[in-house]
């Protein structure tokens, strides 16, 4: 039996155990930077494999699987462990979250399960590869400043020094059994915008006595659309969206202040910070021209995610060999953000997508949706492909 068939067979035999792990994690989700029980569960699993574990960033877990010539190359495999503040739909699924208002709606339970499965496969074959596999279970992907940045701060890319890093993420737009890759720029940077518009509140029937904060805020939102439509280079993908407006007046009350919250995303770091300056300048100018003022707080989030071309080419080729050519597709740029981007800025990295969709079973909901779920056949590919990619990078 070839190594590929051996991995496939072993991954298939792990499926019942992987389902049990995933159900446990799904029923016991923890919010970003609160993953204490999840981290302990991961530690216990790895220690039962005979691996030594290390804590980083308080709730992050790292372990090493040393093969032959362990210093020759280090491949890091990453999973995130945090859940979201979402109430899971009550649809009869037996593994529904037991933590009210907290749900694994982004598949991080799948990522953790897949990496634990890959650890099982790789640990049993440490005499079949050269180098070292570093297992990285990180906290806080869903919340700034991002667990990846804290893991890097605490030395996850050192001791031993990581040569390449690989991460996978579920994608409900891709059918189960399939996977997707993109070389080069893939995901956007993300920054949070908070504005408070100040004016003079008063009776809606006497606008001449007021400085209308609602009107000012409206003009700011409209004026800022030119940041993307007229100021940005059309060749640079950019998004500026406002999703929260609080004007706490009434039908006949103009409030003294209005709050705006939004996001700016792009794939160019120089333009990113120029855009911040343009946003501040335009919003300030509009507010002042209408007799008001605005306070602006732009909170810098994750950088853009870039997949190393050479590594991603090798991984896509390896995935094609493992799954078959029809099961591997090319992905487009995606303007969502991921803190895996921090790793990609430091070491050659590959972040790819794992298909979990099954239309026949109604498993079609997007991540961050209260009905999100996966076809658990994906767990087999999730762990098997991760292990296979690591083995190919280490020359097994």
Order of helices and strands: HHEEEHEHEEEEEHHEEEHEEHEHEH
Q: In the CATH scheme, what's the topology name of the largest domain?
A: Aminopeptidase
By helix and strand content, what is the structural category?
A: alpha/beta
Strand content: 15-25%
Q: What integer is the average pLDDT?
A: 97
Number of strands: 16
- Which architecture name of the largest domain does CATH use? 3-Layer(aba) Sandwich
Number of domains as seen in the coordinates? 2
CATH superfamily of the largest domain: Zn peptidases
Q: Which term fits the overall shape?
A: elongated
The major pleated sheet works out as: 8 strands, mixed
* Rg (CA only): 24 Å
Question: What's the quick description here?
Answer:
The protein has helices at residues 3-27, 36-48, 108-123, 147-153, 213-224, 226-231, 269-289, 309-323, 340-344, 378-393, and strands at 53-56, 60-66, 74-80, 132-138, 164-175, 179-181, 184-187, 191-198, 202-203, 238-246, 253-254, 257-266, 293-300, 305-307, 328-330, 349-357. The chain has ten helices and 16 strands.
Describe the fold and architecture.
- This protein is an alpha/beta fold and 396 residues long.
- It has two domains: 3-187 and 303-393, Zn peptidases (Aminopeptidase), CATH 3.40.630.10; 191-300, Alpha-Beta Plaits.
- The chain has ten helices and 16 strands.
- The chain has helices at residues 3-27, 36-48, 108-123, 147-153, 213-224, 226-231, 269-289, 309-323, 340-344, 378-393; strands spanning 53-56, 60-66, 74-80, 132-138, 164-175, 179-181, 184-187, 191-198, 202-203, 238-246, 253-254, 257-266, 293-300, 305-307, 328-330, 349-357.
- The strands form four sheets. An eight-stranded mixed beta sheet has the order 1-2-4-3-5-16-6-15, sandwiched between helices.
- A hairpin with a 3-residue loop joins strand 1 and strand 2.
- Helix 1 (3-27) packs across helix 3 (108-123), helix 1 (3-27) crosses helix 10 and helix 3 crosses helix 10.
- The radius of gyration is 24 Å and the shape is elongated.
- The protein starts with a helix and ends with a helix.
